[in-house]
Amino acid sequence: MDSETSLSYILHHMDEDNLPGNAVSPPIFQTSIFCFPTFAEFRDAINDEVNHSLYTRGNNPTVMLAEKKLAALEGAERAKLVSSGVAAISHSVMAFVKSGDHVVCVEDCYSWTRTLLSTYLARFGVSVTYVEGTDPGEVIAAVRPETKVIYLESPTTLTFKLQDLPAIAAEARKRGIKTMVDNTWATPIFCNPISMGIDLVIHSGSKYFGGASDIIAGVIAGSKEDIDLIQEQEFLQLGTVADPFMAWLLLRGLRTLHIRMKAHYEGALAAARYLESHPKVESVLYPMLDSYGQAALSQKLFRGGSGLFSIQLKTKDIRDVIKFTDRLRLFKRAVSWGGYESLVFPNAVKYQNPAEIPPDRLGLVRLHIGLEKPEELMDDLSRALGTIS
């Protein structure tokens, strides 16, 4: 591998040889506007805001450094850093649909993706068809003449179902349909969908890129043509600004991304193997397990896995789910994931009325394995599982 395309070079050296004042850490350009020495330079910037720092609402040097590294990590021509993962999802889809168009999306997608497609865009005459997604043929069969986008999430939220990205991308490209995938789970350390033919890759930068549960960010990576369109058509209009300090925190988090992802993977694999043999666990939904139903596809898509997976508790009683959740001491009860800390998210917590919980989702619990000692996390899980009757 060329030294200037290596992971180490991208994370630690790219565009950092001549930082202002010979700084080692990139400066935070905490400024709203930029000035110009001449009329001509001012005119050039105001007529090409995509490629110039004119106003931090559009571009900023700290943000642009983060974008360059993120694009290189994904093997993309360009990346756009935005204010949240939801903004990244919304901009990506909205840039390529109009009234009368159609989207195909995986069924078990992130809740705000479903809200965008089923509620928000429905107001403007955009329709959606949801598919399980595990069979590429099913995805393509849902395509209509007016389909403009296939939106994928591999693995899917909570249920961790995979899609065959190369197969779907190849068929979509024949039909002129944009393919998009949320790659937050694997990160570019373990998966590069653009190399598989996917057009746009989306991340919640709030997760592993930051790594400390202290930023909200979103990333879109793809061709220069597509990202320029998104910047001009959606980003500048809607103002989902990535502020310089957030970009700097993300840059800091990227320094250790490869180290952290290896630790998350090793810890999650150990915990998942332990849990799949536990008598109080019905099943473990972790794509990197040899026993996983889509293990062959997982090996095709991923070089490793993250710290996130789900388990099905062997119970039909909401009280067992509550006891298990509350008994955990090292796992914090919280939304999101991707930080240094271990988390638990029972699917049942989404329902005010337990009677509304689908029976097959009552015992579904998502775990994030953080950077704590795996043996201590497994002891904690063992104690909590011991409360299930």
From TrEMBL:
Q: Which UniProt keywords apply?
A: Aminotransferase, Pyridoxal phosphate, Transferase
Q: Which Gene3D superfamilies match?
A: Aspartate Aminotransferase, domain 1, Type I PLP-dependent aspartate aminotransferase-like (Major domain)
- Mind listing the GO molecular function terms for this protein? carbon-sulfur lyase activity; pyridoxal phosphate binding; transaminase activity
What does UniProt give as GO cellular component? cytoplasm
Gene Ontology process terms (BP): transsulfuration
User: A Pfam family in this protein?
Assistant: Cys_Met_Meta_PP
Q: Which cofactor does it need?
A: pyridoxal 5'-phosphate
**Keyword field contains Transferase:** yes
Cross-referenced InterPro entries: Cys/Met-Metab_PyrdxlP-dep_enz, PyrdxlP-dep_Trfase, PyrdxlP-dep_Trfase_major, PyrdxlP-dep_Trfase_small
Modified positions (N6-(pyridoxal phosphate)lysine) are 207
Q: Which family does it belong to?
A: Belongs to the trans-sulfuration enzymes family.
Per its record, how is this protein called by name?
Aminotransferase class I/II-fold pyridoxal phosphate-dependent enzyme
